[in-house]
Amino acid sequence: MNGDLLLAAALAPLAVTALAALGAGRAVWPLFALAALPAGLAAAFPDGTADMPAGGTLRLDPDFAPALAAAALIWAAAAVQSRDSVGGDAGERRYAVFFGLAMTGNFGLLVAGEMVAFYVGFSVMSLAVFGLVAHKGSAEARRAAWVYIWLAVVGELALFAAILLIATAHDGTSFPTIDGTPPPEAAAWLALIGCGIKAGLVPLHVWLPLAHPAAPAPASAALSGAMLKAGVVGLLLLVPPSLGTPAGFGEAMVVAGLTGTFAGALYGTAQRDLKTALAYSSLSQMGLAITALGAAYAGLAPAGAAAAALALFAIHHGLAKGALFLGAESGLPRGATVALMAVPALALTGFPLTSGYLSKTAFTDALGAGPLAQAITVAGFATALVMARSLRLAWSKKPSPGGWRATGFVGLVLASVALPAFWSGGPEKLLSGLAPASLAVALAPSAFALAAGALVIRARLATPPAPPGDALALGRAAAGAVRPALVWGARSLGRAAERLDALSGALAAGAARALAGRPAEPPDRWVGAGGALVATLLAAGLAVLI
Amino acid sequence: MSPAWLPLAIVATTLVSGVVIFLTPDRMVRTRSALNLLGAVATLGLVGLLVLRVSQGGSYATRMPFLPGAPLVLQSDALSLLFCGLSAVLWLITTLYAVGYLRHGAHRPRFFGFFAFCVSATMGVALAGNLLTFLVFYEMLTISTYPLVTHRGDAASLRAGRIYLAYTLGGGAMLLLGTMLLYALHGSGDFVVGGLLSQAETRPGDGALTLVFAVLIAGVGVKAALVPLHGWLPVAMVAPAPVSALLHAVAVVKAGAFGIVRIVYDLFGQTLAETLHLLPPLSVVAAATILWGSIRALGQDDLKRRLAYSTVSQVSYIALGVSLAHPVAALGGIIHLVHQGIMKITLFFCAGAIAETTGIKKISDMDGLGRRMPWTMGAFTVAAIGMIGLPPTAGFVTKWYVSSGALESGQTWVMVLMLVSSGFNAAYFLPIIRRVWFADPPPGTLLRPKGLEASPLLFGPPVVTAALTVLAALFAESQLSPLGWAEALVLREFGFVETP
Question: What number of CA atoms fall less than 13 Å from residue B278's CA on the CB side?
Fold first, then answer.
């Protein structure tokens, strides 16, 4: 029974995508919201496996149930908002098809029962996001989509190699988690590249702050809330922390994760566009997840506790960040929007009684009392800054016209308050945040944000212009310097290849002239030759028959 | 009809279709198209029947006396059926497409007649039971494609036709030489499971056999467009789109690639090829061709030329898979016979539909074309993703098996090559996809045509083949998929099967 639910989780969005491709128009958006239902139900009852009609198996790891629940809610809310935010655009049908494919891929990779099914879901999702990022067709959107698709293709290839190496070493395509043998070292590093690109691992993150502001708000919500998590899910599945990793693997991730956490939040504070600031905040938050996972790989945190913390993080950050992105085009008046956005924003800083408090506690519990746990506590301050900045930017944003879209936003804000508590093991954890000792620690970032954040808000014009895409901008400058050499090299190679080909062609043409000694036969004369050939063959056939 | 005649009946049906088409006057378009489709459907039916019989355990051979000690043999085995099935299905689809494409063309009886002869020759190549039969049909293929390459009759076409002949006749001469050498040295050229020469009790000296192998591979290498014998393929792109689609992307290059498979497995055999170290040089040539074709494709602005160089690159996946001496890699190579066929025919169908409907032939003119021809460009995009080798497309299945086999036999460089090749494929297909979907169309062009985007006969076939590209991957595990067939085949050749 539950197996059918897994199958339905992946196939329902695909069926609606087919309707969208056939031109169902605006009617597809409520259908897309409904199509998230099987995934939500599957997350609520995470056991059972299913065999796909085309081969391959489906299975939902209980660790990923929160991620699937979050994904289902975010996609449903994004579909509702897409109806008003994209509906009626010239490219609505195109957007709907890409939206549906990305949704299918996202659910598919979470319920995949073996590596190839996972890769198929991951790849479908990655490719479809290209269409969402490029949708608006502006120069920035095209540039963002171009940077994105190249990194996505590189990621796909790295992941392909990783999966292939694992499959060869293990003589089968089941996940190493099930298999119980660690992946080969090269596979672990390749998986880190493939999944790291998706998860926003510094320095492979450059697509992320470009793509989020370029895409329509609901697509950004799904991208940040649900799809970035696919990178972490992939790493957990392909390189299980419990099985051991190459030397330096976890340490490298911790360094990259901490860099992303702090640099992302601070860089985001200097942004002048709401969605760019939110994208940098996502980068920063994913940095926390990467740090925790890296700590588990490096043996600094117990694998089980880290996985549990990541599961909680997936639903907490997914719902909160999804709600914030939907807030960028909420369809509500300015005051209501900012007030509602303040709820998930506070949660992200780890405010008591919120999902963020639970997630942060889970992280610090997993990491013990070391410097890493302290770093995560301090990260709350950086998050507070970027959230203060985001709310300020949201305040100055022109409200979007109303419609159904507000439903998705408000729904996701409410879900982000209510749902994560379910996965934290009862209300005691939530209430423990009210104990005086932890209360002071938990409130500090928010208090800090009120004070320092006020400065950040006031100083909005004093912040230096920080180009979105940070390292990419540097990279472009560097590329500009070596570009002439590269262009020259590529052109020379092309010319040399062309000459060689031309030479071989000229030889052939010469041979043809020498052989025939006269102009080429027009095709009509060939009819005679063809006739003779056929006559011979038919005669031969007849001779055999007789 | 006795099933023993089935292989001959398949070749004869296509041949007779050609004759009938020739005899139907140009103005009787409907009658000729109907007869042509009848021939294609009948061929498909016969191939289907043969597949059914063979899958039930039958084995059929038609023998005709030809030369002393060397009869013409048409026989059915899993490998020939894979190629026959591909040709029969795609001939039917291409016929529909060609009827739409040449709606206002001249010399149509000649065109469709020779087209049928080409298919006939391809069927013969597929069903050939020994090297001599293979040679005869291989040459027939050369002869019957010339009038199709030069169909337009202008100076450029005639020049291209001449170059085409120089290459293919040269290759044919090499193949003839190799055939004569083999028959003179060994007295037989039968295609035998496990390899004629591997299983022979006495065989010619190693040096002589190595020479025969090199000459034969050079002969079939021309049609398979192995570098440096590939020069004819881009030149032959002056031909009408259906010719480029079925013949130059599928039948002709596949006849060459198919020849490589036959020579390696059924003439020399896995064991002997390994003893004589024949395969590593072939791997190197195939690898060089894969890279060379991609590098040249990057610089082309003419859509058909870019696709032609891409064909050069992709067809060598087959030779590469076969040359790795590992069953899983061989599986990858053999299924690519089919996978590359359905993907590349889609791309050429689209190129032709675009050129016929809008007159656009250059990639730099394709801005915003997706809005004008969404179905055509959708099919193009799916096939291009298949070429890059990303799931869920047939190209991914090929890449997976070839790389997997390479890894299992310790040849890691092949996996790196596959990744680099995928990167190149992305580098020359992604800019097209970006341009057609996300660039603004030039001002003044009609965004949405009234009614259909093109004649349904032009954009229907690529949509069907693009769907096949995805289905072949999604249902790869099914017995009826190309992979299912190829698995049975490799089981036969290697005596066992390993799947990752």
Answer: 28
